[in-house]
Amino acid sequence: MTIEIDDSGTGDLIGSAFILFWRRETNILIKKEVPLKLYQSPDFNNLTKEYIKNLFIETFKEMDIPKTEDIYLCTGNCFDLARIFLKEEEYNYHDAKIEGYLQDCVEQTYLDHIIEEYDVPAHRVSLESGAKRFFSLFHWVYQDFPRRKAFVKSGFPKWKSKWEIEAKNKWMLEMVSNEEKRLSDPKRNSYRKKWSHRR
Questions:
Q1: How far is Cα 89 from Cα 67, in angstroms, rounded to an integer?
Q2: Angle subtended at Cα 61 by Cα 58 and Cα 64, rounded to the nearest 5 degrees
Q3: What is the superkingdom listed in this entry's lineage (predicted)?
Q4: Contact, 120 vs 140, CB < 8 A?
């Protein structure tokens, strides 16, 4: 038997993260969520790693994984404490690049979450994580910054030092631009002239 384990959303700008455990031969797939609130703490790095380690302990019992089973684990640093657990308990695990079925499943799990939970338009986000998805989500956040900033993983250092400031500035510029367009609208000015003549 073989277990594959992968994550999604751990480096994305908004929402929870997810860890999926898949037993290839029986196609058993277990999904676990790492809640957004943990990523909104300045100590998110330690909190999330501890939480993920505990998810491993819980899920390994749930799936009844023997220590002889081959375990292939994504190389992400979110699994640092989980790796210590695997070593200490002498599980047969290997660091690996997870591709194919499980990778697609875990990324789709994250996309379904942000689409259903926050109404992010499906066409705005790609299945593949990385810079393209980050900037798509950043653009979505700043379009309604006062409301959507609550969905951000605000514990990320770069959010406070850079991206939050930039998002707020872009939102304010859009508000000014929209107001200028509204004030220069010919229909609006025509209505104002008619109203003035009536008076």
A1: 8
A2: 150
A3: Archaea
A4: yes
